[in-house]
Amino acid sequence: MKHGHRFLESLGGFSVNEKNHLTINSVDLVDLAKLSDRPLYVLNEDAIRKNIKAYQSALSTYYPGKSEIFYASKAFLNLGMCYLLNQEGMGLDVCSEGELFIAQKADFPLTKIIFHGNNKSHTELAKAIQAKIQCIMVDNACELDDILKISEIQATTTNVMFRINPVVEVDTHAYIATGVKDSKFGLDIDDPLTAALIETAFKSHFTHFKGIHFHLGSQVFDFVTYKQAIKKIVAYIKFLNDKGIEVEVLNIGGGLGTPYTINDTSLTIDRFIQELCGQICEEYQLNNLKLPTLMVEPGRSIIAAAGCTLYKIGHIKDYGSDLLYAAVNGGMSDNLRPSLYQSQYSAVIGNKMNWEGPTQEYKIVGKCCETGDVLIQRISLPKCQPGDILIMFVTGAYQHALASNYNKHTLPGILLVREGTYEWFTKEQPYEGLIQNDVVPEHLKKVV
Ligand code: LLP
After folding, report:
1. Which of 124, 359, 366, 446 might form a disulfide with 120, Cβ 3.0–4.6 angstroms?
2. Does ligand 1 have an atom closer than 6 angstroms to the CB of 257?
3. Which secondary structure element, helix H or strand E, spans residue 382, and what is its range?
4. Domains plus CATH for the chain?
């Protein structure tokens, strides 16, 4: 690959063929882009499996106790993903009835599912309890009350963990920081009510108190915050232990950041797990506690870099400055992240790899009716023409998951690529999907 694609090289799996087209595992991405008029999401199966294995091997290397990995399905979920995760022996973190429904449809082992969410409905809780999933992560007092009542009605004992907010400062976008003061998630570590609720769950016949969970936020790259949080949480576990409440499990959430551009910090899964396990073991030893079962809930770090999106360039506008506007056949309806979090992305022109011709600065704009629908504010690319294929990288997490039908654009399809071959993973939404739930009241059908 030509110099200038250092970021792409760091992602792995990509190369350039004799037509100067970008390929993933020998599949020509320019050919794939012809499969639809809409953008297309592409996921590299090998990369997903590699990231999963990186977590598994790091945990078995650095954590002396038992550990379990729960993929955070909010990052990306479809039926096939559930099957892939099950093949890899992974657990699943769901946070809605919809995610649980997909897992159940895929026959995902229920005992490997944990349920999150800051406002689980009565129905959601009843379904999760009925399904006998592994554990419900309690977010608030009201929810515990509901779990106790439902478990009594169903004459069962429900495994629960408590989501504790360690209240630290988290260096990430404010919208995705959770373990911070006044977060809407979890129970405050300093509130006496938190320990009282844990005690209730511990003593009740209808709940089995398993342990403590915390999640600092997403796209986090620094250990300092994790270390502060681990220190506070282990001290809290010691406090519970001294009250006679045994904490069997510690769940440290997800959050490991993924680089989206060459300028972003890069932190490997191996290093991340090594540092955190070291810190956990140290704190447990200092507090003279027995090591817990360790749970992690990674989402982005498993799937983000395994994905890319294929767009077609339509018109190009020249306002007389050095920056031309190149419009693509998608936008904020298939990638909300630049508009919502001002996220930055890398891209190439997939049919102009190893380009020797002139380059140009572009603003990549979408086709949604919003001025803020800009995918990339400024990027240098080979001089573009309508029909060129723009490929954006690191789009596997929170892209399809956040996609919408805004402007009644249909949801793009997803292709799963393996060595030399590809298959549909999720088909493009048909136009019928845009109206399938609409109901026209009879009185509106009469023309007066
Ligand atoms: N566990 C819990 C309880 C979570 O709330 C999340 C993410 C995760 C695990 C997984 O975090 P990850 O490893 O993926 O960072 N839409 C945002 C991200 C929202 C994250 C929500 N919670 C974005 O596109 O950046």
Report:
1. 124
2. no
3. strand 374-382
4. 6-43+309-434 (2.40.37.10), 66-298 (3.20.20.10)
Name which residue sits closest to atom 8 of ligand 1, judged by CA. Answer: 254
Kindly state the helix (H) or strand (E) to which residue 238 belongs, with its residue range.
helix 223-242
CA quadruple 176, 181, 182, 185: dihedral, nearest 10: 50
The structure's pTM equals: 0.97
Q: Is the CB of 163 under 6 A from ligand 1?
A: no
Query: Does ligand 1 come within 6 angstroms of the Cβ of 398?
Result: yes
- With the most atoms of ligand 1 within 8 angstroms of its CB, the residue from 300, 303, 342 to mutate is 300
Q: In sequence order, which residues have a C-beta less than 8 Å from that of residue 239 and are 6 or more positions away?
A: 195
301 lines ligand 1 (CB under 6 A): yes
Distance (Å, whole) CA 220 – CA 84: 26
Torsion from C-alpha of 308, 310, 315, 317, nearest 10 degrees: 10
Spatial neighbors of 113 by CB under 8 A, at least 6 apart, are 91, 92, 93, 94, 100, 103, 131, 133, 134
Whole-number Å distance between alpha carbons of 237 and 243: 10
Distance 124 CA to ligand 1 centre (A): 20
CA 418 from chain centre, in angstroms, equals 21
* 126-162 pLDDT per residue, tens: 999 999 999 999 999 999 999 999 999 999 999 999 9
At a CB cut-off of 8 Å and minimum separation 6, what does 288 contact?
A: none
What would the pLDDT profile of 289-341 be if each residue is shown by its tens digit?
Answer: 999 999 999 999 999 999 999 999 999 999 999 999 999 999 999 999 999 99
CA 299 / ligand 1 centre spacing (Å): 6
CA of 204 to the centre of ligand 1 (A): 31
Cα(60)–Cα(190) distance, integer angstroms: 33
Residue listed under structure tokens 């997803």: 414
- pLDDT tens digits, one per residue of 35-84: 999 999 999 999 999 999 999 999 999 999 999 999 999 999 999 999 99
Report whether residue 297 contacts ligand 1, using a CB cutoff of 6 Å. yes
